[in-house]
Write a structure and sequence with these properties.
The chain is mostly helical. 53% of the residues lie in helices and 12% in strands.
Length: 162
């Protein structure tokens, strides 16, 4: 049984994988389609979420290029889409994580340059660190201009490629 996505009613897309054994058991005891069995199981399983009775379950494609932005999935007209307004901060947070790792690596080079009194290396490291700190500001326009998940995914900075 493939994963199922459903709109939880709070702006978040839930993902679940109903048990094939439970579906088979329900189908053996109740005349219904497999889709109806899945919906019945989901309503019982997630009753505590107070989901609306018209909640629909969608099959999550096995290969979905937009899984990078899973946190920004929304159900729109019966299909899963990436909400770019929610995906932009997700991508920026990932860029910041990469930037922070790069800054940590530069800390060691900075200390070494200071201990060796290497003014040239120290200046170069400090310049690179400042460019990394400025990264969110420098990519803001590209993030805002991205119109598709692929364009958003392509937004990066050369400093992070080293």
């Amino acid at each position: 049984m493939p994963n199922c996505a459903f709109d939880r009613g709070d702006g978040v897309v839930g993902i679940t994988n109903p048990s094939p054994r439970l579906i088979a058991k329900l189908l053996a005891t109740t005349p219904m389609t497999e889709a109806e069995a899945v919906q019945s199981i989901m309503f019982k399983t997630f009753a505590h979420l107070a989901m609306p009775t018209d909640t629909t379950y969608l099959e999550v494609p096995a290969k979905n290029d937009d899984r990078d932005f899973r946190e920004a999935w929304v159900v729109n007209a019966g299909a899963i889409e990436v909400d770019l307004a929610r995906a932009r901060p997700v991508h920026l947070a990932r860029l910041r994580e990469r930037r922070n790792r790069a800054l940590e690596q530069l800390d060691g080079r900075e200390l070494k340059a200071m201990s060796e009194a290497d003014a040239t290396e120290l200046a170069a490291v400090r310049l690179r660190k400042q460019r990394l700190r400025d990264l969110p500001t420098r990519v803001a326009a590209a993030l805002a201009a991205a119109k598709t998940p692929a364009e958003l995914r392509a937004v990066t900075a050369p400093e992070l490629e080293d």
